[in-house]
Write a structure and sequence with these properties.
Layout lengths: L4 H11 L3 H10 L4 H18 L7 E9 L2 E9 L2 H4 L2 H17 L4 H6 L8 H12 L4 E3 L1
Antiparallel strand pairs: 1-2, 2-3
Helix pairs in contact: 1-2, 2-3, 3-7, 5-7
Length: 140
């Protein structure tokens, strides 16, 4: 099945995944965007599994204060190159914003919390890992 460049660009805009990853996902999904997004998510999970033993010595630590509440979150990655990207910084800020808004009791509750885009933070971290090819770790 031939995939139009406009469809690849649309999926890339939706997911920020690489062009070839988007093309392959659309081909596998036979043009179905929802299925292609799921394929890209699974690729992210696969990336995390393969890199599970790698250390995450780089990343970002963010804090937020709101009224009488304060949070501190750390999003770790493997390299300073990834930590410096706008996508990584945006994800870290989204996590911190969600954490102060939801004020979850523990890390698992934070991972399950929904970000402004409607996806759980854990799903967003997995997507970012799939895009960068690096392990990402969240601490709260």
């Amino acid at each position: 099945m031939a995939i139009a460049l406009a469809d690849i660009k649309k999926l890339r805009d939706m997911t920020s995944a690489g062009m070839m990853d988007c093309k392959k996902a659309l081909e596998e999904a036979e043009g179905d965007f929802k299925r292609a997004v799921e394929i890209l998510r699974e690729k992210g999970k696969s990336t995390l599994a393969k890199r599970g033993d790698n250390e995450t010595t780089q990343g970002a630590v963010l804090s937020r204060v709101n009224g009488g509440k304060a949070i501190l979150v750390c999003l770790g990655c493997e390299t300073d190159f990834v930590a410096a990207t706008p996508d990584f910084k945006t994800l870290a800020a989204s996590i911190a914003d969600t954490a102060i808004a939801e004020f979850p009791a523990d890390l698992e509750a934070l991972k399950a919390a929904k970000a402004a885009d409607g996806y759980s933070l854990d799903e967003n971290i997995t997507n970012q890992a799939g895009k960068t090819g690096e392990k990402h770790v969240l601490a709260y």
